[in-house]
Amino acid sequence: MRAWIVWGTGVLAYIVGVLHRTSFGVSGLDAADRYAASPSVLSSFVVLQVVVYAAMQIPAGVLLDRVGPRAMIVTGALVMASGQMILAFTDSLPVAVAARAVVGVGDALTFISVLRLVPKWFAPRRVPLVSQLTGIFGQVGQVLSAVPFLTLLHGGGWSVAYGAAAGSGVVVASAAFLAVSNSPDPGPDSAPRVTFRETVRNISVVWSRPGTRLGFFSHMGTQFSITVFALMWGVPYLSSAQGVSSAVVGALLTTSVVSAIVSGIVVGILTGRYPMRRSWMVLAIMASNALMWAVVLALPGPAPTWLLFVLVIVISVGGPGSAIGFDYARTFNPSVALGTAQGMVNIGGFLASLLVMQAMGAILNAMGGYTFEAFRVAWLTQYAVWAVAATGVLVARRKTRRDAGISPRTWREVRERMRSQRPAREPSEP
């Protein structure tokens, strides 16, 4: 029971972290009015946040390997709360941009730290599923930003909404300080301790492992589309280009979270049961995302509401799908370097996200703002990322299998092997 309490408290901190991360996305149009910002300037808020988040991943992983998840989770929550509090009361555009960068620093410390708790507190057979649950339950923070945060924003105003978000960060920091423990073992950590210099030296070693790169490209190709949608351009696209109401926008974002929860459970079970088929799941998620966007963007006008719901459901699978990348990091790296490996993997999706967000902002600015045609062209930038990520997965998969001594099998050999592993049928009663 204690394991679930520790993990649940960490997940609560991650939920609030996602609220902080996505709050600016749902308030983008309000921010444009408050700071008189153009689309390209507006995108710089979130782009800088994601740049800082991505740049902090390896330092955060190194720190995690040294100080443990408890200190990282508490510090991350307090740093994000301070950034949100600054944003609540400043009217200065440069200060507001800097505040979002502070949120990015705290955000970088949180998710990989919560993930680090899982292999310490749960049996190995449960790790893939609980890791998936970590990611998908964390997306409840997106619902909090889409519903109560947005309600506070439109009802109480900018300062009230962002002040309340900052307060929630202080609450979860206190809870993590009281409830989270790095390990169920009260004694010293059984893993060998390494010096800071040795940990930094191991960064190149971790990246040299093909399994780490496989996780990086898996995370890159699956995570970025829903991240760009939820973090920055989804709400302006739905409101301005597709012409849907605020109520429908909230329903779509809520549907995204529900889809992530349901699909995450399925992906977690399949990942644990068929570890040799993880890369095929990654490639299937990329292909389905690309196909669904192609259908919506091919329409000459706004899509019907039902098709927008299908789009959101499909691209939301990318969130839990990206957790497969962390499973690769866990599989192909020793525990003493796991934080560093997870940080490297986490860079993949967020690096792709910031590039797409920045490119979309530039395209929207060049084409006159939040019009249907401008968004239609801007979303096409996603296909370059999918091409790079799919190629990276295929190349890294081949090298990972070679290093692990796994030879490729024909489909016939795979089917015969699966048949041979089925239990024999019991003889029927006469």
Automatic annotation (TrEMBL):
Transmembrane segments: 41-64, 71-89, 95-118, 130-153, 159-180, 214-235, 247-270, 282-300, 306-326, 347-371, 377-396
InterPro entries in the record: MFS, MFS_dom, MFS_Efflux_Transporters, MFS_trans_sf
Compartments reported by the entry: Cell membrane
Coiled-coil annotated spans: none
Membrane topology: Multi-pass membrane protein
Domain Major facilitator superfamily (MFS) profile intervals: 1-401
SUPFAM superfamilies given in the database record: MFS general substrate transporter (SSF103473)
Keyword line: Cell membrane, Membrane, Transmembrane, Transmembrane helix
One Pfam family, short name: MFS_1
Keyword Membrane (UniProt): yes
Name listed for the protein in its UniProt record: MFS family permease
Organism, scientific name: Rhodococcoides corynebacterioides
